[in-house]
Every structure is written in C-alpha cells, then in structure tokens.
Design a protein that fits this description.
Elements: E1 3-8, E2 15-18, E3 24-27, E4 32-37, E5 42-54, E6 63-67, E7 70-74, E8 78-83, E9 89-95, E10 98-102, E11 109-113, E12 117-121, E13 128-131, H1 134-137, E14 144-151, H2 152-159, E15 167-169, E16 178-184, H3 188-198, E17 201-205, E18 211-215
Parallel strand pairs: 5-6, 15-18
Antiparallel strand pairs: 1-4, 2-3, 3-5, 4-5, 5-8, 6-7, 7-10, 8-9, 9-12, 10-11, 12-13, 14-16, 17-18
Protein name: FecR domain-containing protein
Domain FecR protein: 7-99
Pfam family, one: FecR
C-alpha cells in the first residue's frame, strides 16, 4: 500500500513533521517535499528547500530522499539535505551513515558519508566530499545562521532566505568582502548593525521594501 502526502513551508516558516513510521522531518523556510511510503521502502522527494531528517531505523525498509537525480539512502540516521534553486544539492550527516548517488543510471556517482561529512554537487557534476561543521550548517533549526569568514555575497544570499526585506549589494566589489558571525534569522536590524560594524559599508533604504548596501563614503 502506498501513501502520498505533500508538505510545504512558506517564506519565513519552519516546521517539524512526524512521519507515519515515527521519523521526523524538520523543514526550513520555503521548502516543499512529497512523501511516498510503501511496504518495502520509505521515499520522499525534496522538490525545493532544505530539511533535516531524523530517521527511525528499519533495515527492511530503506529511507530514500530524492532531490532531482540526486538520491540519499539510509536505514536509520540524522542528516540534512539542501536543494538549491540552481540545482546544486548539499548533504550533511549528523548521525549514522548515508549513501549518496547522483546522475543517470548508466553513470551513477556514489559516495558514502559518516557523521561530520558533507557532500555537495549536482546531478551533472562530480561530487566533492569534505569534513564540515554540521551544527553550523543546521543552526537554522535554532533560529540562527553561522558565517565563518565567508564572502559578503554568500552572506547576503543566505540571509535573504529569511529576511522580509531583501538585501541588495549596490557595488560589485562589495561581494568580495568577508564577514563572520552568528546571527538571529528574525533580527534583521541586528544583522545590518553588525554588517556596518565589521565592514566599511553603509545601509540605505530602497523602494519596494528592499535594503541597499553601499560602499561607505
């Protein structure tokens, strides 16, 4: 018997879903997934967004997450999957082990991940596997984002997932500046103040509820 259920979160919304087998899915903002449970397998399709999966162990029914042509398979573990709009997928493991595969069946690429490891790539690219700070990558579950010497371009793209007033960099050279810190995803003002304290920039209000960042004069 197969059950198909859809789960979504809107912009600014996070929620936890309890699945029929007792597994839990912690969904980040702007996420959409479809659940297909069958007698021999538990399968979810991540259409967009990001989620952490805490999977109940069942060796007879593998738990599979599809993200395009990228597939993650486990029997019981905790892991995070993020599907970017441009097609890249990131898989980070907190507990247990997972098998990641990608690409068409005739040329599948595979990787085995254990706790503290990150695989990232896309269905048509080679995967890179490395150590990572999984707690920092999943800090969104505690309402935080963590940046460690990242470019301002990366920082702004990440913050814009959560801020009601999107930030726009008004000068290309600003993208190369680097920033670090831990920020509350609901405290836009706190982030903008930290931005001006750490970097030689100024914040201006633009039309249509946008925020501009310019070079400080």
């Amino acid at each position: 018997m197969s059950h198909a259920l859809s789960y979504t979160t809107a912009f600014g919304e996070q929620k936890t879903v309890k699945l029929p087998d007792g597994s839990e899915v912690h969904m980040n903002v702007s996420t959409e997934l479809v659940l297909h449970y069958q007698a021999h397998r538990r399968q979810l399709t991540l259409l967009k967004g990001e989620a952490t999966f805490a999977v109940q162990t069942d060796k007879n029914r593998p738990f599979i997450v599809d993200a395009g042509q990228v597939q993650v398979e486990v029997t019981g573990t905790v892991f995070n999957v993020r599907r970017h709009a441009e097609g890249n997928v990131e898989v980070a493991v907190t507990e247990g082990s997972v098998q990641v595969s990608s690409g068409p069946w005739w040329s599948r690429k595979q990787a085995s991940l254990t706790p503290g490891m990150l695989a990232q790539g896309s269905e048509d690219q080679a995967w890179s596997v490395q150590r990572t700070d999984v707690a920092a990558r999943t800090a969104w579950r505690q309402g935080k984002v963590v940046f460690r010497d990242q470019t301002l371009d990366e920082v702004v793209q990440e913050m814009n997932r959560y801020l009601p007033e999107p930030i726009e960099l008004m000068d290309e050279k600003l993208k190369r500046l680097r920033m670090a810190g831990v920020f509350n995803i609901e405290d836009a003002q706190g982030f903008l103040l930290a931005l001006q304290e750490q970097l030689p920039v100024a914040v201006v209000r633009l039309v249509e509820g946008r925020v501009g960042v310019t070079v400080e004069r």
